[in-house]
Design brief:
Number of strands: 12
Oligomer: single chain
Strand content: 25-35%
Distance between the termini: 39 Å
Structural class: alpha/beta
CATH topology: Metallo-beta-lactamase, Chain A
Strand order of the largest sheet: 1-2-3-4-5-6
Length: 222
Protein backbone atom coordinates (compact mmCIF):
# COMPACT_ATOMS: atom_id res chain seq x y z
CA UNK A 1 0.00 0.00 0.00
CA UNK A 2 1.02 3.62 -0.46
CA UNK A 3 1.07 6.46 2.00
CA UNK A 4 -2.24 8.06 2.90
CA UNK A 5 -2.37 11.86 2.85
CA UNK A 6 -5.19 13.91 4.37
CA UNK A 7 -5.10 17.64 3.90
CA UNK A 8 -6.84 20.04 6.23
CA UNK A 9 -7.81 23.62 5.53
CA UNK A 10 -7.18 25.93 8.45
CA UNK A 11 -10.27 27.93 9.26
CA UNK A 12 -9.16 30.03 12.21
CA UNK A 13 -6.21 31.96 10.79
CA UNK A 14 -5.79 35.03 8.61
CA UNK A 15 -4.61 32.99 5.62
CA UNK A 16 -5.91 29.79 4.05
CA UNK A 17 -3.38 27.31 5.32
CA UNK A 18 -3.04 23.68 4.40
CA UNK A 19 -1.89 21.13 6.96
CA UNK A 20 -1.27 17.46 6.26
CA UNK A 21 -1.69 14.17 8.09
CA UNK A 22 0.59 11.62 6.44
CA UNK A 23 0.49 7.99 7.55
CA UNK A 24 1.36 4.44 6.58
CA UNK A 25 -1.95 2.54 6.42
CA UNK A 26 -0.25 -0.77 7.25
CA UNK A 27 1.48 0.26 10.48
CA UNK A 28 -0.63 3.33 11.28
CA UNK A 29 2.57 5.34 11.86
CA UNK A 30 1.99 8.97 11.02
CA UNK A 31 3.28 12.52 11.05
CA UNK A 32 1.62 15.91 10.81
CA UNK A 33 3.05 18.69 8.69
CA UNK A 34 2.58 22.37 9.64
CA UNK A 35 -0.33 21.90 12.07
CA UNK A 36 -2.78 24.78 11.96
CA UNK A 37 -6.49 25.34 12.31
CA UNK A 38 -8.97 23.20 14.22
CA UNK A 39 -7.48 21.02 16.98
CA UNK A 40 -10.71 19.04 17.40
CA UNK A 41 -10.82 18.20 13.70
CA UNK A 42 -7.22 16.96 13.81
CA UNK A 43 -7.95 14.79 16.84
CA UNK A 44 -11.08 13.32 15.23
CA UNK A 45 -9.19 12.43 12.04
CA UNK A 46 -6.31 10.86 13.98
CA UNK A 47 -8.80 8.77 15.97
CA UNK A 48 -10.98 7.80 12.98
CA UNK A 49 -8.02 6.62 10.87
CA UNK A 50 -6.25 5.10 13.90
CA UNK A 51 -3.10 7.04 13.19
CA UNK A 52 -0.21 6.53 15.60
CA UNK A 53 0.93 10.12 15.44
CA UNK A 54 4.49 10.52 16.69
CA UNK A 55 6.03 13.46 14.84
CA UNK A 56 5.33 16.99 13.68
CA UNK A 57 7.28 18.34 10.71
CA UNK A 58 7.57 22.11 10.42
CA UNK A 59 8.55 23.72 7.12
CA UNK A 60 9.35 27.09 8.72
CA UNK A 61 8.68 29.20 11.79
CA UNK A 62 5.83 31.49 10.66
CA UNK A 63 2.90 31.51 13.06
CA UNK A 64 0.34 30.20 10.59
CA UNK A 65 2.45 27.06 10.07
CA UNK A 66 3.35 26.29 13.69
CA UNK A 67 0.04 27.37 15.23
CA UNK A 68 -0.78 24.06 16.97
CA UNK A 69 2.71 22.52 17.17
CA UNK A 70 3.33 23.26 20.83
CA UNK A 71 -0.24 22.35 21.82
CA UNK A 72 -0.04 18.95 20.12
CA UNK A 73 3.49 18.30 21.37
CA UNK A 74 2.47 18.95 24.97
CA UNK A 75 -0.81 17.04 24.81
CA UNK A 76 0.53 13.93 23.04
CA UNK A 77 4.28 14.14 23.72
CA UNK A 78 5.08 14.38 20.00
CA UNK A 79 8.52 15.09 18.57
CA UNK A 80 8.73 18.34 16.62
CA UNK A 81 11.22 18.62 13.76
CA UNK A 82 12.53 21.87 12.27
CA UNK A 83 15.65 22.83 10.37
CA UNK A 84 18.45 23.85 12.75
CA UNK A 85 19.18 26.99 10.73
CA UNK A 86 15.55 28.09 11.14
CA UNK A 87 15.62 27.43 14.89
CA UNK A 88 18.88 29.30 15.46
CA UNK A 89 18.13 32.25 13.16
CA UNK A 90 14.68 33.02 14.55
CA UNK A 91 15.03 31.67 18.10
CA UNK A 92 12.11 29.30 17.65
CA UNK A 93 11.23 27.12 20.62
CA UNK A 94 8.67 24.40 21.23
CA UNK A 95 8.27 21.34 23.44
CA UNK A 96 10.23 18.30 22.18
CA UNK A 97 11.87 20.37 19.45
CA UNK A 98 14.48 18.45 17.44
CA UNK A 99 16.86 20.40 15.17
CA UNK A 100 17.47 18.68 11.84
CA UNK A 101 19.72 19.07 8.83
CA UNK A 102 19.13 17.11 5.65
CA UNK A 103 19.58 13.68 7.21
CA UNK A 104 16.73 11.25 6.63
CA UNK A 105 14.44 9.68 9.22
CA UNK A 106 11.39 7.41 8.93
CA UNK A 107 7.64 7.04 9.14
CA UNK A 108 6.97 3.30 9.10
CA UNK A 109 8.96 1.98 6.13
CA UNK A 110 8.99 5.36 4.38
CA UNK A 111 12.01 7.64 4.44
CA UNK A 112 11.44 11.32 5.27
CA UNK A 113 14.02 13.39 3.41
CA UNK A 114 14.34 17.05 4.48
CA UNK A 115 15.48 19.45 1.75
CA UNK A 116 16.75 22.87 2.85
CA UNK A 117 15.12 25.44 0.55
CA UNK A 118 15.82 28.97 1.84
CA UNK A 119 14.27 32.02 0.24
CA UNK A 120 11.00 32.53 2.07
CA UNK A 121 12.82 32.15 5.39
CA UNK A 122 16.43 31.33 6.19
CA UNK A 123 15.81 27.70 7.10
CA UNK A 124 12.71 26.85 5.07
CA UNK A 125 12.57 23.11 4.46
CA UNK A 126 10.63 20.85 2.15
CA UNK A 127 9.99 17.22 3.08
CA UNK A 128 10.12 14.45 0.48
CA UNK A 129 8.20 11.37 1.63
CA UNK A 130 7.95 8.66 -0.99
CA UNK A 131 6.89 10.45 -4.16
CA UNK A 132 5.27 13.32 -2.27
CA UNK A 133 6.94 16.69 -1.65
CA UNK A 134 5.59 18.96 1.10
CA UNK A 135 6.80 22.44 0.23
CA UNK A 136 5.47 24.84 2.87
CA UNK A 137 5.82 28.39 1.54
CA UNK A 138 8.71 27.65 -0.80
CA UNK A 139 6.65 26.42 -3.73
CA UNK A 140 2.93 26.65 -4.39
CA UNK A 141 1.01 25.07 -7.25
CA UNK A 142 0.48 28.59 -8.60
CA UNK A 143 3.70 30.40 -7.63
CA UNK A 144 6.34 30.65 -4.92
CA UNK A 145 6.64 32.18 -1.47
CA UNK A 146 7.18 35.81 -0.55
CA UNK A 147 10.81 36.90 -0.57
CA UNK A 148 10.80 39.87 1.78
CA UNK A 149 10.97 39.97 5.55
CA UNK A 150 13.58 38.82 8.03
CA UNK A 151 15.79 36.14 6.51
CA UNK A 152 13.98 36.13 3.16
CA UNK A 153 16.01 36.44 -0.02
CA UNK A 154 14.93 36.17 -3.68
CA UNK A 155 18.46 35.04 -4.61
CA UNK A 156 18.09 32.06 -2.30
CA UNK A 157 14.56 31.40 -3.54
CA UNK A 158 15.88 31.22 -7.11
CA UNK A 159 18.57 28.76 -6.03
CA UNK A 160 16.07 26.66 -4.09
CA UNK A 161 13.67 26.37 -7.01
CA UNK A 162 16.48 25.56 -9.39
CA UNK A 163 17.66 22.87 -7.00
CA UNK A 164 14.18 21.33 -6.79
CA UNK A 165 13.99 21.34 -10.59
CA UNK A 166 17.27 19.42 -10.75
CA UNK A 167 16.44 16.91 -8.01
CA UNK A 168 12.69 16.22 -7.95
CA UNK A 169 11.17 13.63 -10.25
CA UNK A 170 8.49 15.05 -12.54
CA UNK A 171 6.00 12.47 -11.27
CA UNK A 172 6.32 13.69 -7.67
CA UNK A 173 3.14 15.06 -6.11
CA UNK A 174 3.42 18.57 -4.66
CA UNK A 175 1.68 19.54 -1.40
CA UNK A 176 2.16 23.24 -0.53
CA UNK A 177 1.31 25.16 2.62
CA UNK A 178 -1.35 27.29 0.89
CA UNK A 179 -3.74 27.06 -2.02
CA UNK A 180 -4.43 30.05 -4.25
CA UNK A 181 -6.97 28.37 -6.50
CA UNK A 182 -5.48 24.96 -7.24
CA UNK A 183 -5.88 21.81 -5.18
CA UNK A 184 -2.76 20.30 -3.60
CA UNK A 185 -1.36 17.08 -5.00
CA UNK A 186 -0.60 18.22 -8.56
CA UNK A 187 2.36 16.50 -10.16
CA UNK A 188 5.61 18.38 -10.51
CA UNK A 189 5.42 18.19 -14.31
CA UNK A 190 2.12 20.12 -14.11
CA UNK A 191 3.89 22.86 -12.16
CA UNK A 192 6.78 22.91 -14.63
CA UNK A 193 4.29 23.76 -17.39
CA UNK A 194 2.05 26.11 -15.41
CA UNK A 195 4.08 27.80 -12.66
CA UNK A 196 5.92 30.77 -14.11
CA UNK A 197 8.54 30.81 -11.34
CA UNK A 198 9.76 27.40 -12.42
CA UNK A 199 10.09 28.59 -16.01
CA UNK A 200 12.47 31.49 -15.35
CA UNK A 201 16.06 30.24 -15.58
CA UNK A 202 17.80 33.61 -15.42
CA UNK A 203 18.55 34.80 -11.89
CA UNK A 204 18.18 38.53 -12.58
CA UNK A 205 14.92 38.02 -14.45
CA UNK A 206 13.58 35.88 -11.61
CA UNK A 207 14.49 38.43 -8.93
CA UNK A 208 13.12 41.43 -10.84
CA UNK A 209 9.87 39.57 -11.54
CA UNK A 210 9.38 38.20 -8.02
CA UNK A 211 10.15 41.56 -6.41
CA UNK A 212 8.35 43.73 -8.97
CA UNK A 213 6.51 46.76 -7.67
CA UNK A 214 2.82 47.56 -7.99
CA UNK A 215 1.61 43.96 -7.85
CA UNK A 216 -2.13 44.22 -7.38
CA UNK A 217 -1.93 41.29 -4.97
CA UNK A 218 0.98 39.63 -3.19
CA UNK A 219 -0.48 36.33 -4.31
CA UNK A 220 -1.21 37.25 -7.91
CA UNK A 221 1.76 35.35 -9.18
CA UNK A 222 1.71 36.38 -12.84
Amino acid sequence: MTLEIIYLKASELFTKNLSYLVFDPDSGDGVMIDPAGDLEQIELLVSFHRIKLSKILLTHYHFDHVYLANTLARKYDLQVFMNKIEIDYYGFHCKNLIPIDESSFFIGPYSINPIHTPGHTKGSTCYLIGNNLFTGDTLFIEGCGLCFGEGADPNEMFDSLQYLKSQIDLHTFIYPGHSYGQYPGKRFDYLMHNNIYLQIDNRDHFISFRMRENQYSLFAFK
